[in-house]
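SUBJECT: A protein chain and its fold
Encoding: whole-number codes for local backbone shapes
RECORD BEGINS BELOW THIS LINE
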Amino acid sequence: MTQLKESDSKNETTKQMTLIQAINDGMRLMLDDDDRTIILGEDIGKNGGVFRATEGLQEQFGDDRVVDTPLSEAGIIGTSIGLAVNGFRPVAEIQFLGFIYPAYEQIMTHVSRIRMRSMSRFTVPIVIRAPYGAGIRAPEIHSDSTEILFTHMPGIKVVCPSNPYDAKGLLIAAMEDPDPVLVLEPMKNYRSKREEVPVGKYTVEIGKGKIVRKGSDVTLIAWGAMISIAEKAAELAGKKGISCEIIDLRTLYPIDRDIITQSVQKTTRAVIIHEAHNTGGLGNDIVSIINDTAFLYLRAPIERVTGFDVPVPFFTLEEHYLPTTARVVEGIEKVLHF
């Protein structure tokens, strides 16, 4: 099967897809392309997964390649480790990122360390897919945005697409990576829009961010579901004569330091937007990157617009927890008028 890089995939035949359909399509292509690929998780077979990401895959490829597992996240990841070191390419679905904590020990102690521990004799080509984030009115623990727990540990890459095209390309890149990759999927974006996605196989390079809107006055840095908030805020700011550049990080570890540095050196101001808690959020690392590489260019302190330091609240207060367009515009004006 011909494989294209992001740069030359634009001329391929395309089809309108939502983000969840793009993920399903990426897994279907990889199951067809490589018989070492095995997908496993809770209710992913006959039911097609809680969000229907795996819908139709067990019917097409059989229950020995698309495997319904017991209700045990630690068991799913532990089984995936055994498969991976024995030559398979497992893709483990965790129903919600907030359910991953029973498997955290397996991920931190084994998944991320086996290459180093074995002096590269063994690698662990596992992909862990996990829906994350608030905004769909899910119950407690279903809406966590705790990506920072995983970006802290070298040995596992963390990617986070915001749109259908990137979702398919990053997922295929992750499934071909010789090392473990955590794919964080913004639930709020699963069916929020459709866009043209190449029907064939292509990859989006892990570790590379993307400028989704060019501007000159301030850099907005975001990922996942917060990209749409940044875009709406940039539109409102534009009506006030403020030109915003938006960076979609796409990969949270390893982070694209160059794209951040070059943009902030150009605009001289930065606003970081994420829905995770303020304390200990990835925004702190991005502030450090800017201080290391663009501090002397700054005309104002860096602003962060984030979730609050409380558990994600229940339905009626959920929208008050998440960064809003109004809060981001306020942050933009704060750095402009410092």
